[in-house]
Design goal:
This protein has 107 residues and is an all-alpha fold. It has a domain at 38-107. It has one helix and no strands. It has one helix at residues 2-103. The protein starts with a helix and ends with a helix.
Length: 107
């Protein structure tokens, strides 16, 4: 009978240890569960912040693209203008050369 009580005591102690581990696990889960709404709120704020950042980057990209196109047009206009000046000067130089050859007698 003493042996039976000793065996039952050991079984009960094992069961108590198992139940204590279960209670500790449940306490940890309860702490985590109580933090879940806060975690969701924090994640929601991060998501909103990222969306704002993405939107800001899109707007900045559009502005940069507009500036790029305006600058490209301005530079192309300058190139075209200078090209016209060069062509005009080349024609004038050829005309002067031709005129010089016609006016100045060859020796």
């Amino acid at each position: 009978m003493v042996e039976e009580l000793g065996a039952q005591k050991m079984m009960l102690e094992d069961r108590v240890s198992q139940l204590q581990a279960t209670v500790e696990d449940l306490e940890v889960r309860a702490r985590c569960g109580s933090r879940w709404p806060q975690c969701r709120l924090t994640c929601g704020r991060w998501r909103m912040s990222l969306q704002v950042s993405v939107q800001t980057l899109r707007e900045l990209n559009e502005e940069l693209e507009e500036n790029h196109l305006a600058t490209e047009k301005q530079l192309q206009d300058e190139v075209d203008f200078k090209d016209t000046i060069i062509r005009t000067q080349v024609r004038a130089a050829k005309h002067c050369e031709w005129h010089y050859l016609m006016v100045v007698p060859l020796k």
